[in-house]
């Protein structure tokens, strides 16, 4: 048995429904199962080789992108300098926000972090031209601050789409209703809720009742206009007892996916992340996975196994995988850390390998977490476990899929099996 949380040596239980259940055709059913098995059983490199092969045959035009990904796979955790474009570009298109969520990582770093700044469409195009022509990255995240506060958001979405990227957005939802036609062009839209009524919205998002009502109107409009959306909740020991209300809220709103994030406390003692060492967390998980009739998919958060000897050693892929810059072009080590011109600026010759960025990657490679910055922010950050999340619910086949996390096997021996 592997002892690494999130080890690539995945074990899953495939519980299938009889063909007359929700699934349309046997073929679709088996194809989906096969994909899941491949996704979970093959190593990243094997999956990549398969994709490269497929891309050459099916989409010769995407060859550059897959080659770029191959370079990424060869470089991640191997070299502190990189010679490719990180597969995900995260553009903080505005550093302004209309909420002040007490658990927001920006606020945790500095309560006065936000400032009124919006990247211009010309500058935005300039960055994509410089770093991603021909197309190499795969995903472009439009984020903030609050991305929908950008006065030219429609133009930015059109520009992003013209670069053939899969364009995704995370929004707090307040302004969704005003931007429906542009939002319908996105490949993925996630509305961060963390709340489900006026009281919880005030508590967890520091917002006004009117803003919560605007979010509700926005979600209803998305539904009426058949725009696919996800909703997300950041969980901690402090709000876990409210999770059944979150599920009920989601059932009323009709997203296609509910994502639970584990809180990254960034050194704050006000929020305790979910861990297998907490009875409350284990009970919550038990209840959640005992149901299989959710009308949406669910992504479980990465739950920490604080007692695992390898907990500290899981190395984050962010500094190799993500390219994060803000509205004035400043770069960050990771999208959950503040942007800083010392790390680099996209309008001042940043080439992914500034001294600071390289040092950060070097330290990540050691897995030792010695610097204060990494110790404080990374140890209890779920992004360190990105791609290694251990559980999802697939509503089409009404099945939970779990990967091999030792603490999970120990607590729920019947759930995870060979
Ligand atoms: C920083 S927000 C920016 C986009 C937008 N304002 C929003 O709220 O979706 C991006 C995502 O990070 C999540 N987030 C913020 N602080 C977090 C933290 N300390 N731990 C985990 N997730 C966090 C938010 O809930 C949101 O889903
Ligand atoms: S809405 Fe998003 S960016 Fe704004 S404070 Fe909340 S989490 Fe942070």
What do you see in this structure?
There is one protein chain. The chain is α/β, with parallel strands linked by helices and 418 residues long. Helices cover 36% and strands 14% of the residues. It has a twelve-stranded mixed beta sheet with strand order 10-9-8-1-2-3-4-5-6-7-11-12. α2 runs antiparallel to α3 and α5 packs parallel to α6. The longest helix has 16 residues. It is globular, with a radius of gyration of 21 Å. Bound molecules: S-adenosylmethionine and iron/sulfur cluster (SF4).
Radius of gyration, taken over Cα atoms and rounded to an integer in Å? 21 Å
User: In one word, what is the shape?
Assistant: globular
Structural class: alpha/beta
Bound ligands, named by name, code or SMILES: S-adenosylmethionine, iron/sulfur cluster
Q: Which stretches of 5+ consecutive residues score pLDDT under 50?
A: 1-23
Largest sheet: 12 strands, mixed
Query: How would you spell out the order of helices and strands?
Result: HHHEHHEHEHEHHEHEHEHEEEHHEEH
- The average pLDDT is 87
Name the beta content range.
Answer: 5-15%
Produce the secondary structure layout.
Blueprint: H1 26-41, H2 44-58, H3 63-75, E1 88-92, H4 105-109, H5 121-132, E2 139-143, H6 153-162, E3 166-171, H7 180-183, E4 188-192, H8 198-205, H9 209-224, E5 230-235, H10 243-253, E6 257-262, H11 279-290, E7 297-299, H12 318-321, E8 322-325, E9 330-332, E10 340-345, H13 355-366, H14 372-378, E11 391-394, E12 399-402, H15 406-411
The chain binds S-adenosylmethionine and iron/sulfur cluster (SF4).
The site of S-adenosylmethionine (SAM) has 18 residues, from α4, β3 and β5.
């Amino acid at each position: 048995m592997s002892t690494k949380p999130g080890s690539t040596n995945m074990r899953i239980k495939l519980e299938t429904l009889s063909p007359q259940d929700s699934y349309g055709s046997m073929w679709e059913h088996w194809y989906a199962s096969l994909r899941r098995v491949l996704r979970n059983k093959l190593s990243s490199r094997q999956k990549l080789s398969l994709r490269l092969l497929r891309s050459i045959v099916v989409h010769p035009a995407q060859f550059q992108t897959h080659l770029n990904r191959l370079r990424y796979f060869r470089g991640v955790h191997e070299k502190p300098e990189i010679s490719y474009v990180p597969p995900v570009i995260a553009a903080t298109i505005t550093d302004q926000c209309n909420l002040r969520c007490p658990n927001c990582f920006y606020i945790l770093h500095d309560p006065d972090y936000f400032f009124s700044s919006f990247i211009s469409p010309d500058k935005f195009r300039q960055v994509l031209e410089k770093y991603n022509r021909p197309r190499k990255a795969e995903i472009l995240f439009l984020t903030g601050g609050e991305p929908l506060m950008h006065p030219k958001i429609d133009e930015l979405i059109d520009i992003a789409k013209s670069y053939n990227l899969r364009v995704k957005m995370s929004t707090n939802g307040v302004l969704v209703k005003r931007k429906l036609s542009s939002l319908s062009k996105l490949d993925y839209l996630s509305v961060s809720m963390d709340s489900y009524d006026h009281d919880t919205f005030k508590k967890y998002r520091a917002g006004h009742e009117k803003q919560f009502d605007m979010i509700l109107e926005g979600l209803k409009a998305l539904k009426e206009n058949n725009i696919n959306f996800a909703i997300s909740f950041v969980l901690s020991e402090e709000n876990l007892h409210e999770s059944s209300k979150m599920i009920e809220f989601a059932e009323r709103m009709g997203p296609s996916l509910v994502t639970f994030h584990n809180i990254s406390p960034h050194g704050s003692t006000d929020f305790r992340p979910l861990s297998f060492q907490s009875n409350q967390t284990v009970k919550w998980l038990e209840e959640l996975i005992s149901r299989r009739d959710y009308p949406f998919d669910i992504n479980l958060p990465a739950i920490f196994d604080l007692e695992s000897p390898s907990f500290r050693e899981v190395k984050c892929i962010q500094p190799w995988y993500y390219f994060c810059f803000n509205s004035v072009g400043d770069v960050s080590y990771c999208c959950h850390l503040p942007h800083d011109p010392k790390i680099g600026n996209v309008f001042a010759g940043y080439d992914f390998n500034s001294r600071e960025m390289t040092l950060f990657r070097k330290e990540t490679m050691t897995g030792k977490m010695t610097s204060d910055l990494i110790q404080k922010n990374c140890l209890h950050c779920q992004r360190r476990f990105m791609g290694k999340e251990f559980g999802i619910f697939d509503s089409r086949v009404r099945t939970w899929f779990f990967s091999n996390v030792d603490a999970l096997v120990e607590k729920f021996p019947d759930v995870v099996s060979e």
